[in-house]
Amino acid sequence: MDPHHASDIGSAEYLNLCHGCLYSMYDGNKVEPELAEGYDLSKDGCTYTFHLRDNIYYHDGTPITAYDFVYSWQRLADPETRSTAVYNLTECMSLKNAEEVIRGELPPELLGVSAPDRRTFVVELNQPCPYMLSLVSSSVLCPVNEEFVKRMGDKYCTSPETMLFSGPYVLDRYIPLDPQMHFTKNPNYLFADSISPSGITFRQISNPQQ
Predict the structure, then answer these.
(1) Residues 6 or more apart from 44 whose CB is under 8 A from it?
(2) Tens of pLDDT, residues 127-174
(3) Which domains, and CATH codes, for the chain?
(4) C-alpha distances in angstroms, 13 versus 32, 51, 121, 138, 161?
(5) Rounded Cα–Cα distance for residues 63 and 7 (Å)
(6) Which of 15, 61, 56 minimizes the C-alpha distance to 183?
(7) Residue 191 near residue 167 (C-beta atoms within 8 A)
(8) What is the C-alpha R_g of the chain?
(9) Is 60 within 8 Å of 147 (Cβ atoms)?
(10) Cβ contacts of residue 103 below 8 Å, gap of 6+?
(11) Residue 177 has what pLDDT?
(12) 3-state secondary structure of 154
């Protein structure tokens, strides 16, 4: 359930329920602002400046800030994370210094992301990316709170109690190898009033004849 270690389609479906992103995708290929309220694009098409909404929180009431996006993307690129989803930063969007950080030639702090303030997240690319908004709607690029991750240590994302949720739902029942996962609506989600149903249960079926 760690967004930086879940790159298969099944995991992405779960994570998209409980992790908010800068933008969200609907009707297959349309995007709209989610945690961001909008963005500015430089004349050369290589620098995106995302402006975060003011009233966004994790499920426990912790504010979501631009610093969480900076840490998340740096953690994804950090070779110590050993993420299989780093291609989102390289092949997909060609993020500045991503290749060098992933290879360990530069520290994660030199990745092409920054936060001038708590509501402004800046992304620098090597070249224009016409589908950038679709990319930032992926849960692998969701905000991650650095203090929470460090406090949880090796237990991070191993149970609902060791996760922070920024999306429409909260995982409230998860046992490794258990065929069922249950999600309930996140009351602190920005658009909680428009979210339905109030709960979702997934049951993994090993035998398609069942």
Answers:
(1) 128
(2) 999 999 999 999 999 999 999 999 999 999 888 899 999 999 999 876
(3) 9-203 (3.90.76.10)
(4) 18, 26, 25, 10, 20
(5) 26
(6) 15
(7) no
(8) 17
(9) no
(10) 79
(11) 65
(12) helix
DSSP calls for 62-87:
PBP-HHHHHHHHHHHH-TTT--TTGG
Six-digit token pair at 139?
């849960």
Cα–Cα distance, 185 to 140 (Å, whole number):
21
**Per-residue exposure over 58-74, b if at least 16 CB sit within 10 Å of its own CB, e if not:** bbeeeebbbbbbbbbbb
Q: What whole-number distance in Å separates Cα of residue 165 and Cα of residue 185?
A: 11
Instruction: Tell me the helices (H) and strands (E) count for the chain, helix number first.
Output: 5, 9
Element housing 24 (H / E): strand 23-26
How does pLDDT run across 28-58, given as a tens digit for each residue? 789 999 999 999 999 999 999 999 999 999 9
